Amino acid sequence: AEVDDLIVTGTNNKKLLELQEMFIAKWGVEKWGDIHTFLGMRCKYDQSKGELTLDVEQKIKDMLKRFPELAKLPYKTVPLQPSQVNKEYKVGELKPLTEIDEYLVQEYPKIVGTLIYIAITARPDVAYAVGKLSRGMHEPNKLHCDMLKDVVGYLRNTISLPLRYTRNPSQA
Predict the structure, then answer these.
(1) What pLDDT is recorded for position 94?
(2) If you average pLDDT over residues 53-57, what whole number do you get?
(3) How far is 121 from 163, CA to CA, in rounded Å?
(4) Element (H, E) at 42
(5) How many C-alpha atoms does 152 have within 13 Å on its Cβ side?
(6) What is the distance between the alpha carbons of residues 154 and 83, in angstroms, rounded to a whole number?
(7) Could you tell me if 146 and 95 are in contact, meaning their C-beta atoms sit under 8 angstroms apart?
(8) pLDDT of 61-98, one tens digit each?
(9) Helices 99-121 and 142-157 meet at what angle, rounded to 10?
(10) Strand order in the sheet with 41-46
(11) Are 130 and 116 in contact (CB under 8 A)?
(12) DSSP letter string over 56-90?
């Protein structure tokens, strides 16, 4: 078996060192150090503050590079417009697709798949909106394209926003 990514944490430094020595002896792994990236997330841990921050800035940049039309979308301040939360269209009510919408429909499953990964790793602020987008996975329409533009515009605007975990001060 092969392990590409592994995080080992704990509060007992002696036990962590023993575990590291066992990994080196048994599998010849390199001595491990502080974590910097894990599965596409940038990880920073400040032991003195007891603060772990995770971000997916590079994943968002990679998505914008892979789908260049997304980089042209306007910045947004919310991931989903309140007017779109419960909006549904009846057959015949949808406006025609624009050129950018045609592109989004063609790439929709790939883009939404990337957004799902972004949402579940380090961007819970877009999880609800991405869940709404995933409902159009097999037959995206104008409403899905409009929501997708909002989510991507919001991510462009908040690209470096991290997810921050802090230790309970009573456990310091």
Answers:
(1) 72
(2) 97
(3) 9
(4) strand 41-46
(5) 26
(6) 16
(7) no
(8) 999 999 999 999 999 999 998 877 777 766 566 788 99
(9) 50
(10) 37-38, 41-46, 51-55, 163-166
(11) yes
(12) -HHHHHHHHHHSGGGGGSPP-SSSS-GGGTT----
Confidence of residue 102 (pLDDT cuts 50, 70, 90): very high
147-151-155 Cα angle (round to 5): 165
CA 84 to chain centre: 22
Report, in this order, helix, strand and coil percent for the chain, each rounded to 5: 50, 10, 40
Nearest-CA neighbor of 144 among 130, 158, 154, 157? Answer: 130
pLDDT band at residue 172 using 50, 70 and 90 as cut-offs: low
Residue 76 near residue 157 (C-beta atoms within 8 A)? yes
20 contacts: CB under 8 Å, gap ≥ 6: 8, 31, 32
Cβ pair 133, 19 in contact under 8 A = no
Q: Pick the closest to residue 72 from 92, 99, 48 (CA basis).
A: 99
As a whole number of angstroms, the distance between CA 104 and CA 124 comes to 23
Separate counts of helices (H) and strands (E) for the chain: 5, 4
Q: Both tokens of residue 25?
A: 């002896």
Mean pLDDT of 11-37: 88
